[in-house]
């Protein structure tokens, strides 16, 4: 019995150790590689320097990357606002309701999460082309809203379900209008859920590949697509520097969101 | 006094529903429509592209390889991911938060960044090869890039957060007294795992496996950058046909094939989950 429990601890411990190593190792490796002094991507890096970051922030030599990064940021902000507003309204509508229609609608709204996004990216490209639009940031933003809305909907719906209906009833019985109740009762309660959802939508759009792959054009280059190009052609070490900046940004935003709205707990539940 | 218009609350779902109808449902229907054209200029109706695609043995190899890649990734992710969840289950609240953070950080790091990391790790002079040579486990550097096992290794990390989130969600709602009871009644840790923890966490595991399967089979950039041109999966066909060759009908056929393959794979995982649940109880 004892020996069996020991074997359990050893086997599970080793596998979990491997799991943690796989989860966090690559992130650490990318960060360290980005500080290399050498001209090639190697780990461990040969000497430490900030040269690749300097090159990355050079507005002349890295102008294409800057352009792509600004495009990605712009789209991410628009997609975040669009997805968050739509998802918040929908979560209010669907909260505490049941029935075939509500379930069907909920499945419909969540389906981009499980559907191959690449198929949707191609579909969106053909759809917009047939309607006579040329590639633009606006179209990319629309595509991103569709795929990040489920992320915002999930956290917002979760906080809606924690809203005590008695609060809404007492507000209404005291003569408050629906809008007033929404502003003064509902919104404050679900605000952390909305904020967490908005954050996920923002990151989801910033990282999106399958939609941008099809909708990005020469005048609407997106950061992940440009990074892919940099990896394909010469394995530019600036990819490591961009990755470093992205990891640092996500890390800081995550810590802030964890403090403010308890991000990780919301993602888990 | 203004008239208060009280919106019926269900109407608030309309904006999202309409946006989805216009920009999600209609494009997907269009995908089906375009696949039913014979020629690249999309003028003649017919199923020539479907016939051509499905009659080609290469297509079937690609379909099988894509589903196999998804299956291998699910297996590898579950093998190392489930123990991580078990450690989470046994940890105190403080460590649980740390573990959750470690799981979510890669999820929020761009897929391109994570793919890039694996080039550094799997390359000829990469981390794994250096370690193998140093330990004397291999006489010469192994080829890991552009191989299926290298790709599965990379996808295991890239997809693991998707497995873990639903799993940790179920685990954190699990009643710890059940495991205590199992132990108090003399069950070994292995027996408790198989008879108590695993059945109770099955819904989370199944949900996670479904997400991993769907995501790994469509992970174009990871497949392309790590797998290279030698390993062909459905996403590469879609990309080539739509953005290189500009044969949209054939690209649509490939995209719908991917959709159906992922749908069938996910349904199969759900079915296996239901069956094992019936056995477990």
General description of the model:
The complex is a heterodimer of chains A (269) and B (281). Helices cover 77% and strands 0% of the residues of chain A. With 269 residues, chain A is mainly α. In chain A, α3 packs antiparallel against α8 and α8 runs antiparallel to α11. The longest helix of chain A has 32 residues. With 281 residues, chain B is mainly α. Chain B contains 12 helices and no strands. In chain B, α1 packs across α12. Chain B is globular and about 70 Å long.
Quickly list its features.
heterodimer, A: 269 residues, mainly alpha, MetI-like fold, 77% helix, B: 281 residues, globular, disordered N terminus
Portion of residues within helices of chain B: over 70%
Structural class category of chain B: mainly alpha
Number of helices of chain B: 12
What is the number of strand segments of chain A?
0
As for the CATH topology of chain B, it is: MetI-like fold
User: CATH superfamily assignment of chain A?
Assistant: MetI-like
Q: Tell me the helix content of chain A.
A: over 70%
Task: Describe the oligomeric state of these chains in a short phrase.
Answer: heterodimer
Say what the CATH topology of chain A is: MetI-like fold
Distance between the termini of chain A: 36 Å
CATH architecture descriptor text of chain B: Orthogonal Bundle
The biggest beta sheet of chain B reads:
none
